[in-house]
Design goal:
about 210 residues, alpha/beta, Rossmann fold, 2 domains, five-stranded parallel beta sheet, four-stranded parallel beta sheet, 9 helices
C-alpha cells in the first residue's frame, strides 16, 4: 500500500506523475470540507507537498498525527510554521539555490524598468503622445550606479555579482553581520546605506522580523 500524501496547490505534470507513482495523492484543491477530510483521512497522511505561497496552515498540521515531512517546492517557506513542525518531529524541506539566477535576473529587470521608466514610456507610446508631443523624457542608466543590497544571502550575492560584472555597479550591503570573504562595503546601519546609494534592493525573507523594515 502506498503512503498517503496531501498536495496543496498545483504542480507540474512531471512532478505529479512521480507523486502518483509513489504515493496515494489527496488534492487539497478538491477538499470542500476540511473537517470531514481530516476526520476521515488525516491520520493516514505522512507527507505534505506544498509551495511557499500556500504553505500549510497550523490548524491542518495539528490534525495530521502521522505527518513526517512537509516538502515545499520553492525557496521561501514563510507560510509553513517550521518551529511547530520541528517540535512535532516533522521535517521541512525546500529547494534553495534552484531559482537564484532567475530571481536575480528578475530583480535586475525591475531595476532597468524603473531606471528607464519602461512602464511610463510604454503608456506614452500607447496613448499617442509620441506623435502629439514627441519623444518621452530622457531617462538614466544603472551603469556605474551605487547599489545597496538589503539581505546578502544566496540570491542577494547573485544579484550583486551580476550588477558588478555586467553594469559596473558599486555594491554595498546591509545584513545582521558583515560576511567574511565579501569584498563589498558593509553598512551596519541600514539608513546610512539607503542615504548613500542610488538603488536599494530588498531581498530578505518575509515575516514579522522584516515587516516594515523599509
Amino acid at each position: 500500500m502506498k503512503p498517503h500524501l496531501l498536495l496543496i496547490g498545483g504542480t507540474t505534470p512531471r512532478t505529479m506523475a512521480a507523486m502518483q507513482e509513489n504515493f496515494t495523492v489527496h488534492f487539497g484543491k478538491d477538499v470542500t470540507d476540511w473537517n470531514r477530510f481530516l476526520d476521515e483521512t488525516g491520520t493516514s497522511i505522512v507527507a505534505v507537498a506544498t509551495n511557499g505561497h500556500d504553505g500549510l496552515k497550523p490548524e491542518i498540521m495539528a490534525r495530521l498525527p502521522a505527518l513526517k515531512v512537509i516538502s515545499c517546492y520553492g525557496v521561501g517557506y514563510d507560510a509553513i510554521d517550521a518551529k511547530a513542525a520541528a517540535a512535532a518531529g516533522v521535517i521541512v524541506t525546500h529547494t534553495p539555490n534552484v531559482l537564484n539566477r532567475d530571481v536575480a535576473n528578475l530583480a535586475i529587470l525591475l531595476m532597468l524598468a524603473v531606471s528607464r521608466r519602461l512602464l511610463h514610456d510604454d503608456a506614452w507610446v500607447r496613448s499617442g503622445k509620441w506623435k502629439s508631443i514627441g519623444n518621452a523624457p530622457l531617462t538614466s542608466s544603472i551603469e556605474g550606479k551605487k547599489v545597496g543590497i538589503l539581505g546578502l544571502g544566496r540570491i542577494g550575492e547573485t544579484i550583486a555579482r551580476k550588477l558588478a560584472a555586467a553594469f559596473d555597479c558599486d555594491i554595498s550591503y546591509h545584513s545582521r553581520n558583515a560576511k567574511p570573504g565579501i569584498a563589498y562595503r558593509y553598512y551596519p546601519d541600514l539608513e546610512a546605506m539607503a542615504r548613500d546609494v542610488d538603488y536599494l534592493v530588498v531581498i530578505t525573507p518575509g515575516g514579522a522580523a522584516t515587516n516594515r523594515l523599509v
